[in-house]
Amino acid sequence: MEPLFGSEELLVAAVPVMGEGNLRLTLTVERLSSRARAALAEHQGLADDMLRVEELEAALPSMAQWRVTAGRSVDWGALEADLGTALPSDFRSLAEAYPVLVIDDFLMLSVPTPGAEALWASGSREDEILQDLYEMGDTEDYVPYPQVGGLISWAASYSGDSFYWRTSPADPDAWPVVVRGANGDWSEFPVGAVEFLTGVYRRTIHVPGMPGDFPSDSPEVLGLSDRIG
Fold first, then answer.
1. Terminus of the chain with fewer CB atoms < 10 Å: N or C?
2. pTM to 2 decimals?
């Protein structure tokens, strides 16, 4: 039975039935189990995440050439166990499709490298620059991870701008993006990392404190090799 569409509670499907020499389709309605509802929600979530990645690709046309069509096979279970938290699903989808990306020789998007997940996790837990800023009282009301609601970095610019998630609320997919500009400005945006980047490069999101030529009119994207060592 192939589903036509479903909701959190019901699944509607077309079932072929033979009668009087003719094949007809009959609609059936089944109540979903909790496991089936979870699987349906996960499938829909993955589709939404890939749509966000495709929207970023549309905003950055030179990005698509670096897509890893077979997927990168990051060991998310090991990484998140080392880190002590799950990560937003849109970021996971992006990291499965792309290596580390450098946009316009300015912004580096840091995604985990397969086989070096522990290194990415440890770097996120031991962010020395953020810790120093915190100890100097230069983080406003933000705190470093793994403090409750602490910041985890996912990108940085070559000018010293830092891009984080604020790890609250509890659902990683609801984590907002926080930016510290090189000039010391702090800004928060109620969107995920992929949607944030799309907004920046479509010029629908303005980030205070960025250079005047950011973003450029035709951003170029460079993908870095996953080779370790």
1. C
2. 0.79
